[in-house]
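Researcher: Next entry in the queue.
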Amino acid sequence: MRFLLAIGIGLCVSGCAAVRSYDAELHGTLDRAATGNVDGAILFLESANPGKGLLYQLELGMLQRLGNRYEESQQAWTAADAGIEAARSAGPLDPAKLIGDAASYVVSDKLRPYQAHDYEQVMLLTYMALNHLAMGDYDRARVAIKQTHELEAGIAERRSRQLAAVEEEAKKRGARSSFKDLNGYPIQTIDNPAVNALRNGYQSALSHYLAGFIYEALGEPSLAAPGYRLANELQPDQPLLEEALAGLDARLAAPGDGMTDVLLIVGSGSAPALQSRQFTTPIWVNGKLIFIPAAYPVMIPAEAARPLQLVVDGQALPLAPLTSIDLMARRSLQDDMPSIMLRAAIRSTTSAVLQYQAQSRAGDRDSAGVALAAGLLAFAAVALNSADDRTWRALPSDVAIARIRLPPGQHKVLLQSLEGEQAVPISVSGRYAVLDFRLLRRQVFVSAPKANVVR
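Model: Structure for this entry, 455 residues:
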């Protein structure tokens, strides 16, 4: 009885984390950022995250980047990257790590330490490279963008092993592993032609195009070409991407004419949110197939103010859609659902067994304590049944690019979206430059280089 009572009390103590709504918290943070109040957004984020864990570092780094505080942003992201690497190097993959710890057996995936999604890990390194570019350091940007290639290879291997481990464990337990078995789950949110057209949920055309541009700026055509080529494969039938590869040799062979080759990156909106919703799932308990309500994450539409047109000094430029983080997040959730469903099945079964054991001892002399334990367990199983809704929300929803040659000096950029037209002054110099714009509702943030590569 003491064991059951200890579990019940522990579950209630941990309940705050289990019922915490990350989506609601980030709305407050993003609302402040969308008005240009970056410092207020950071304070709001800090007040909601006393633990200052991995996800906090990811969000903080992006907010600091919006405020052009690149060195502080790099510090936050370096800490996040170190945390991700430590988790990755902790040991070989095994079913126990996929399932979770004892607390997540009975309450919620929210009690598991946050593990960055695959696409978040790739986008972290990509934005770290963009920070280096904003500080004029192409060499360090090269190091960061090169790490994305190595990371992608590691993710592919881990994904393959993870799927095999989950399928084997689910088979042992007689658990369902397809989200299509969930009664009422909005399948189309993560299983539709646009999502399924992605090669996977972590490779980003933005990362590879940026790699091509950085290697080109550093005079390394043998590395630039594969970057542009893979960007074309990930986002086919885009003339701007095709031209980057086809015209690479000619651009590098051309003598300097004093013009600046400018890559304009436009990120819009914020990454999609996850919400916890309950669905019935079939599980086996004491040899019987029963349907138990369990919480699963559902992805809701991203907040996006996609640019309709980009005008530089009166010249309208074609914007090429490059990466949809919204779609990557949906594909990632689709790939993660077998693991999520396995943990939910274990959680439901464990909770049912514990409650049964507590109730079956109602005739013991400690019946009052047993009844309390049973009540606490029932509360944990129902009231605290909440899916993990944590995800890096400060990322943009969609990223598009344009490319133009400009004379050094001041220029005027107009970003036109459904929210209206925003005028942004820019300045370029050197032979290559990267300018990163971020549309967040009516607010435009600009990350402009302090220096540029000159060859």
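Model: The mean pLDDT is 83.
Researcher: Noted, moving on.
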